[in-house]
Structure formats: C-alpha cells, structure tokens
Amino acid sequence: MTTRILEWECGTEPLGRVVVALGVFDGVHLGHQALVRDSIALAAERGVQCAVLTFDRDPDQVVSPDTAMPQLLTLDEKLAYLSEVGPDVVVVVGFCRHIADTAPDRFVTDVLMDACAPVEVVVGRDFRYGRHASGGVRSLAESGETHGFGVVAHELIEVGGAPVTSTRIRGLVAAGEVEEAAELLGRYHRVRGSVWRGRGMGAEL
C-alpha cells in the first residue's frame, strides 16, 4: 500500500472518517513509530483509514525562531519515514503564526476537523497545542466530547530509563553520541549537505 501525501490548507476537501495520529514527529523515532502503528491498528478495529496529521516544520521555528533547535529531519525525510510505517495518508499542515496564535478549541475546529472527520485522535501523553501551548490531552478530550471523537494518550516509549523524545535525540546528536541516538531512532541519523573542496583530508580517510 502506498501512503498518500496531502497538503492541507483552509478550504481543502476534508478526508472522511479516520483515526488520526497527531503530532510534529520530528525524527520519526521509536516512540513516533509505535504511536503510528497503534493508530493503524485502531483504525483497522474501527473500520476506517488511518491518517497522520503533522506540520511542515517544528512549531518552535515559528513561535521562538531565535532559540529553536535544528530539526532532525527535513520535511521530505519525515514524510518518507512516516510513509514507511504505513498509514493510509499523511496530511501536512503549514505551520504559521496564525496557527500558533489559535486557541486550542479553534485549532480543533479550524484545522483538525476541517482536514478530516476524526473518529479517534491519538497523541503522545505530553502533546501540547494551541496558543502558548495551552492545550493538552485533557482539553483535546473535552473537544472530543463536544465533537464526537475519542482521544488516546499514547504512553512514551522508554529506552535506558528515560523517555524517547526528539529533544533527547537532538542533544545526543549535538554531543556526537550517534550510537545512542541511533538506538532511539531505530536507524542511524543522517546528515545531508553539499560537499565542497577543502584541504583534501577526506581522501586520506
């Protein structure tokens, strides 16, 4: 099965009834992979498709660009790794200042429910959304009661006695701890860039 990639904008024809895995998913690490796989299984139980709803960039890059950490993946890489897990569709939302300033309840109606008709929404238990990150699992569940969808707070995967998070992996990569980062990612971290002629030291390696 080939995963469809859709770019959402206001007015886009919404998907039908789906189970939604919602998050930034930078790194598509072991925790993200487990969350999406469980969403796929839940969608099969409900007799609907599974959609991943994610953003084209980390919200921190819009909210606090001066202090935002570098991303582990480009958007194309993230979409490729998410597609490998096997959801029916990945919906990409362009994160902008308008969405950053949207209250949690309006995010649900103006973005989530404009993009699809959620049956269940699956998020990490530490998921935050809406203006000033004021929304979380509880407010999302309250919106679900109003609009008719359930919310599943997915437990974080732990490795080495600590949760697997994108922030933890970024710190490991920055410190050169690539083996430990690979353990949390489920693969080796890759860096893309252009090769420029320098002192020729690479030829001696």
Summarize, please.
This protein has helices at residues 30-46, 60-63, 75-85, 97-100, 104-115, 137-147, 166-174, 178-185, and strands at residues 4-8, 17-22, 49-55, 89-93, 117-124, 150-154, 158-159, 162-163.
Q: What key phrases describe this protein's structure?
A:
two-stranded antiparallel sheet; single chain; 205 residues; alpha/beta
What does this molecule look like?
With 205 residues, the protein is an alpha/beta fold. 37% of the residues lie in helices and 20% in strands. The protein contains eight helices and eight strands. The strands form two sheets. It has a six-stranded parallel beta sheet with strand order 1-4-3-2-5-6, sandwiched between helices. Strands 7-8 form a two-stranded antiparallel ribbon. Helix 7 packs antiparallel against helix 8. The chain is globular. The protein starts with a strand and ends in a 20-residue tail after the last helix.
Q: Gyration radius, to the nearest Å?
A: 18 Å
Shape: globular
Q: H/E series, N to C?
A: EEHEHHEHHEHEEEHH
Query: What structural category characterises the helix and strand content?
Result: alpha/beta
Supply the number of helical segments.
8
Beta-strand proportion: 15-25%
Low-confidence stretches: none
Cα end-to-end separation: 42 Å
Number-wise, the strands total 8
Task: Report the sheet with the most strands, covering strand number, pairing sense and barrel closure.
Answer: 6 strands, parallel
Largest sheet strand order: 1-4-3-2-5-6
